[in-house]
User: Which sequence fits this backbone?
């Protein structure tokens, strides 16, 4: 008894094998998970520790950092204390929903942080948050 393939079984297979696609997507996901935390802090600031809170997802966000030497950066651009108010006022006028996140190194004297906060308030910033680590 011979087995003859039936001519009706010879149809074109139109299914896509998604296994390689899933493998590539998983590798990209792992790469993103590993590199994303490295991109969050460009200025080296040793943040004080607090309890964990919910992060605000806001597209109208400016990052104001004060490093251990007391140098001020706004969105990774160095600023002087004298022109900080003007720059913040310009940002606030351009974006009414501006939120400023303040990253202050724990070695910075409180007086320097208070000066920066006062300038931000004087510039019209109404939403000011502090960044800490867990």
Assistant:
């Amino acid at each position: 008894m011979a087995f003859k393939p039936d001519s009706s079984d010879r149809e074109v297979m139109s299914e896509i094998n998604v296994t390689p696609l899933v493998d590539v997507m998983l590798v990209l996901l792992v790469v993103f998970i590993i590199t994303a935390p490295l991109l969050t802090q460009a200025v080296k600031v040793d943040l004080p520790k607090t309890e964990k809170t919910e992060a605000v997802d806001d597209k109208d966000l400016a990052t104001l950092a004060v490093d251990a030497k007391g140098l001020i950066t706004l969105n990774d651009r160095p600023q002087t204390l004298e022109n900080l108010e003007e720059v913040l006022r310009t940002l606030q006028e351009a974006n009414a929903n501006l939120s400023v996140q303040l990253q202050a190194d724990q070695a910075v004297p409180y007086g320097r942080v208070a000066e920066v906060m006062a300038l931000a308030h004087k510039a019209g910033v109404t939403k000011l948050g502090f960044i800490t680590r867990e």
Notes: DSSP finds three helices and five strands in the chain. The beta strands are 61-66, 72-74, 77-79, 99-104, 127-130. Helices lie at 19-35, 81-94, 110-122.
